[in-house]
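Cross-posted from the bioinformatics board.
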Amino acid sequence: MNENIFTTVCPGCSIACGMYVREKDDGTFNIDWRKDAVVNAGKLCRFGVRLPANLKAAVSKVDGNEVELSDAVTALGNAIGDGAAFVSVGNTTCEEHLALMKLAESKGAVVNTGMGAFSAISAECHSTMGVGVPLDAIESAKKIVLFIDPYEQYPLLVRRILAGKKNGATVTAVGWKAVSLADDNKTIDPANYESELALDSDSVIIAEINPSTDPERVMVLLNLAKASGAAIMFMKPFVNAVGCDLASKKTEQKSLDQIIAEINDGSIKTLVCLDSDLIEIMPDETAVREALGKLDNLIVITSRASAIADVANIVVATEPFYKKAGTVVNAEGRAVVGSGEGTDGIDAIGVMLGQPADLFAELNSAVLATLGIDAVDERVIPVYEKPEYGVMDANPTAEEVETALVYAGGPFFWNGIVDDNDFVEMNLDMLTANSLLKGIPAKIVSDKGEVVIKYKVSDVAPGVVLSNMKLPMTTGMVTSVTVSR
Amino acid sequence: MDIGDCYVGWATDEDIRTRGASGGLVTAMLAAALEKGLVEAVVVLKKLGEFEAVPIVTSDPEEVKAAAGSMHSVPIVLSRYLEYGTKVALPAKPCDARSTIEQAKRGQVDIDTTYIVGLNCGGTMHPAMTREMLETVYKLDPEEIVGEEIDKGKLIFETKDGEEHAIKIDELEEDGYGRRESCQYCAVNIPTMADIACGNWGVIGDLAGKGTFVEINTEKGIAILENAIDAGAVEITPADEKGKAIRAKVDGAMMKVAAAADKKYLSPIEGSHLDYYINALSDCINCGACKTVCPVCACGEGAKCTEFSSSSDTYKMSLFHLVRFVHLMDSCIGCGQCTDVCPADIPLTHIYQRFARPIQDEFEYKPGMDMTTPPFFGVDLLEEGH
Ligand SMILES: Cc1cc2nc3c(=O)[nH]c(=O)nc-3n(C[C@H](O)[C@H](O)[C@H](O)COP(=O)(O)OP(=O)(O)OC[C@H]3O[C@@H](n4cnc5c(N)ncnc54)[C@H](O)[C@@H]3O)c2cc1C
Ligand code: SF4
Ligand code: SF4
Ligand code: SF4
Ligand code: SF4
C-alpha cells in the first residue's frame, strides 16, 4: 500500500503535460491528474492516461544477459571507443543529454538530436524552429493555421484551439485529414500559402518538426511566418526535444537518415542511443533493424523497455523518466522540473568520465545558464532571443504517388505502441475505387510487402491512406501503395 | 452518545486546532483512529501548494496532522483511493461520501470497515480558475496568497502582507468564476450519509472559528468520535439548539441557491437532443479519463463502454459515451470530476447530469445517500415471467 508520489510531466510529446505518478513498492505505478499544472490544468490525452500500460521499466543487459547496472556501465566504458556516434532525440532531461554530450566530446564526437531539419536549415532559424509560443497565445490569436492534426498528434492543443475559437479566432487546417474544429479545411500548394492564408501578426501557425520532416517544408513555413509576421510554433514528438536542442546548440548535427547511411557504409561501427529508439522512431523499421545489425556495438542507455533494447549489445537501464532529476523544456520553451531525484544515467556517464559524484549539480547549472534563469519556475517562460532570418529558397518535394500511405504520427506512433490505433483511414471515394466492402479489412501493398488491416471512412485527402500505427511494409512517412479488398 | 446527537468539538492539541479548518476535530479524530488502531490507514490531502494537494493513503498520524485545513481549490474525490479490505477512514465531502457508498453497493468498498468522516461542503473551485480569478478579478498575484476561506457568502483570500481580500461568491459566479458549475447545483451540503457529519455551520458564540460542529449518523460515527475522546485527542460539548437551527437554516438557503443554479445550467435542451449530444462530444479525443476518474464507476479495464467501442467506429457519437450515459444514469452524483479532467474541455458532468437527473427524479432515487439500491436494480426478472 505504500506509495511514492512523483510530480512529473508526461513523456509523450513536447507539450509536457503535468501529472503525478503514484509508484507502489513493487515498482508498478498509476498516474494521477495534477490539476494545478500550468501547461494542461491536469488534463491528459490517451497516452498520458494510459502511461502505466505504455511505459515498462528497462533492464540492464550485456550481450542479451541481464546484469547489474554497474556491470552494464563497465561494459559500456569498455565498448565506447573513438568513432562512436551518439543519438539523443530528446526523451530525457537536459542534464542527462548534457552528460552524454560530455562523453561524446571526450571521444571527439557530438550528440545528434537526429532532427534533419536542424542540420539542413541555417542556425539563425534554430531558435524559431525550437521554441514556439506560449500556449496562451493560441487562445488569444485571431487566426490559427494548423499544419498538424491536433486530435491525433498533439491532443492537448485541442482545448487551446477551441478556446481560441471561442475568443473569436478562425481556424484553418492544412493537412491530410479534415479536422472538425477547423472552420476551414484546405489543401493548398505551398507556393500559395501566403496568398491563400492571408496571415498577419495576430496569427499563429502550428506545425511540426520530427526526425523525418522534410527541411524544405520547414523553410516554406518559416518563410510564411516571416512574410506575414505570424507567430510560429513547431511541435516535436519528444518531450524534451526543445531542451535537448537548446543544450546541443552550435554543434554539427546529423539526421537519423544520415546516421543509418553511415552505419550502412561502415563509417559508424558503434552507436550510442540515449532514450532514442530508432526502430520505433524511423518509419522503415526493417531498414533500421538491418543497419543496426551491421554495428560492432549498439549501446542503449534507456529508461524504458523498447524494441532497440532487445537488439542492443549493451543496455544501461536507468530509472523511469518520472524518477529522473533534471529539467525539461517543452514546445513553448517553458522549463519544468519534476520531483524525481534519480541520476542513474548521469552517474553512469560520470563514472566513465572519472567525474566526481556531483556531476548532476554541474550540469544543472549549465542548463540554467543556457536558459538564462537562476531557477526553474514552471509559471514563467524564460526569454529566448529569436534572431531575424532571411527568406529561404525552398522547394518541398511533392508527393507524386497515386495512392499514399501517410503517417500522422501521434504519441502512440512515436513510441511504437499499438493501442486503439490499429486501423487506417481513407475517404469514401477510395473505398469505391478500390472495391472495398464494409466489414472486410483492406489489403495494402507496397514494394516491400503487404498488410491486411481494418479501415475507417474519414474525410481524408484523395489518394491518401492515413495511419497512426506503424505498418511493417512502409519505407517512409509517405509510402506508395495500392489498396484492394 | 447516540445516533442523531450533535456536538461542537475541537482538537486538544493547540497546533492542530489552529491549523484545522474550524476546530481541528476532523484531523484529531483521523489521527487518533490510526494511533489507537481503529483503522490501518487514512486518506488525506497532502498539501503541495496553496492550490495544489494530492491524495495520500497513509498509516502515519503525522501525515494526517500535517493535512489539517480545508482546501477549496482542490476539487478531488477521495473515494477513488480506498482499497477493499483495509480498515480505513477518510474525510469526505458529500461527493466523497456518496461515491464511497456507491462503490460499496458495487462491492468495491467494504462499508463496515470504512469510516466516512463527512465534511459539509459549499463547493470547490478548479485551481486553474482560481489563479485566473485572482489575477483578473481580485488583481492579486496567486503566489502572494497564504490562506483562503469562505465566510458569509464571501470568498476571502489572505495575502502575505496579512491583508484580507473578500468578494461575494454570487458576484464571482455571475462573471463565470467561483465554484465549479457542478458544485453550484450540488444540493447536498451536509453529508447525512457519512458516519459523522462535520462542519463550521452552527458553531456560534465563543467557539465560532474554534470549534467543529458534528452530527452523529451511525454507530461507526460514535466509534470514531469516542475513540478520539478516549485518546484525549478531542473535547466536545453538546451543540446548542440555536446552533443547530442556524446550521439547518444555512443548509436550506444553500439548497435554494443550488436549485436556482440547477435551473440556470440544466434547463431543457432546445432543438434536437441528438444533435446536442453529437455536437457536445464532437471534440472527444478518446482519452478515457472521464471513465478513469469517475468515482461511481466500478468497471475495470474490460468495461462495456470500452469493449464495445473503438476509434475505428464511424458512428456519429461513440458507443463509449452512449454506454456510459446509460450506465451512469442511476449512479452519477454530479461530482464534476469528469469535466475537470476532460482534455477537450467538454462539460461532461453537465451532460451526464442531464441524462441522469430525469431517471433519478422519476424513481425518487438519489445515488449515494444510503445503501439502498435503485428501484430498477430490484426488479425480479423471474417474477416478471422472463
Ligand atoms: C471544499 C470544502 C468546502 C467546505 N464547505 C463548508 C461549508 O460550506 N460549510 C461548512 O459548515 N463546512 C464546510 N466545510 C467543512 C469545513 O471547512 C471543515 O472541514 C470542517 O468544519 C471540519 O473542520 P476541522 O477543523 O475539524 O477539519 P480539519 O482538522 O481541518 O481537517 C480537514 C480534513 O479535510 C481534508 N480536506 C481538505 N480539503 C479537502 C478537499 N478539498 N476535499 C476533501 N478533503 C479535504 C483534509 O485532508 C483534512 O483531513 C468545507 C470543507 C471543504 C474541504
Ligand atoms: S502525449 Fe503529449 S498531449 Fe498527451 S498527455 Fe502526454 S504530453 Fe500531454
Ligand atoms: S460536488 Fe458537491 S460535495 Fe462535491 S465538492 Fe462540489 S459542492 Fe462539494
Ligand atoms: S459521470 Fe462525472 S459527474 Fe457523474 S459521478 Fe462520474 S465523474 Fe462524477
Ligand atoms: S475525458 Fe473528454 S476527451 Fe477524454 S474520453 Fe472523456 S469526453 Fe472524451
